[in-house]
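Q: What structure does this chain adopt?
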Amino acid sequence: MTSFDTKKIQGILVPILTPVDEDENIDLDKLKWMTRHVIDHGVDGILAFGSNSEFYMFSDDEMIEATQAIIDEARGQVPVYFGIGHIRTKSAITLAQRASKLNIEAISVLQPMFIQPTESSLYNHFKAIADSVPNTKMLLYSNPGRTGYTMSDNLIVNLANTVPNIIGIKESSGNITKLQELIRRTEGTNFKVFAGKDTVVYVGLCVGAAGAVCSTANIYPDLVTNIFDKYQSGEFKEALDAQFKLNPIRQSQDAASFPAATKDMANLIGMQVGPSILPTEASKGAVLDGMKAAMKEGGYL
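A:
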């Protein structure tokens, strides 16, 4: 079995926001600014076109061009990952092959949305994508809240053990038992398990997660990276304090329509990343007031 170097695949990865202008065109200059901002404030990797990057709103050409802009600005300082969320296997393969030509660390592939494939068809879907780019590392992306179904532990462990370039997963259910079982069952392998929910970064680290993928690291990168950095240095109380400071802010986003809240908060603190892509609209009224209150309580407004 081919061995892949995964030493850099750890820490806090940010699914970077995709800034747009008033016509919903990607603002590449602002995207480069965002890239520099999160790197300068300590993130360990950048995920282009994750869920909070609104991957479902952009064409393949737009995603490739924007990812290249991120890579150019990152200058090798942190690894860059590329998110794929196509439902159709053939379309995901085409995009994976295009992305593999970029200087990326890995692709991240979401379970197909809307449909509910059988376990065997899910296995074949992920394996076909991975096999199409055998020299490119691949992370699974499990998000049952958005796709409507859960991938079984057996499926994930089977993929980890039988497909050489599937080397990790972003597990976004928030289910700590599932997270730790995936870690336990892949112990001793090169498979990296990342917490995919911002409120469980600390707990994930306690059970052996390689890190976390956190949308809030776009806006509060120092706070979020402190959870990981302090934990790694043995300053456990400080790490937990940072997690507890983050949680009310992150939880205040839950009342908003996904994925508006992340851009809402970024714009509230003056980052000027542009609007969410229609039909998603910016938060208003009590929902926005709740986010503002949590940000004020945390000292960010």
